[in-house]
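Quick one, tokens below. Sequence please?
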């Protein structure tokens, strides 16, 4: 169910980008906006996990080190 919700949200955002691009620059603007949306979605797909872990300053767990 979460995968479906995520897909719908991303599709809606791409549609919104396309509509705004069309209103701002016609068909050419829509193509550029859709290309930007596709690039942003690809970047988020491949890097979201790294960005979240970096945000929380996550560190690897050392299994040989005793708990504090």
């Amino acid at each position: 169910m979460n995968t479906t919700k995520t897909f719908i949200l991303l599709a809606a955002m791409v549609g919104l980008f396309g509509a705004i691009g069309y209103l701002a620059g016609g068909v050419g603007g829509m193509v550029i906006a859709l290309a930007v949306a596709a690039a942003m979605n690809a970047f988020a797909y491949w890097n979201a996990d790294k960005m979240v872990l970096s945000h929380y300053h996550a560190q690897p767990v050392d299994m040989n080190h005793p708990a504090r």
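The radius of gyration is 19 Å. Residues 23 and 29 are 8 Å apart (CA to CA).
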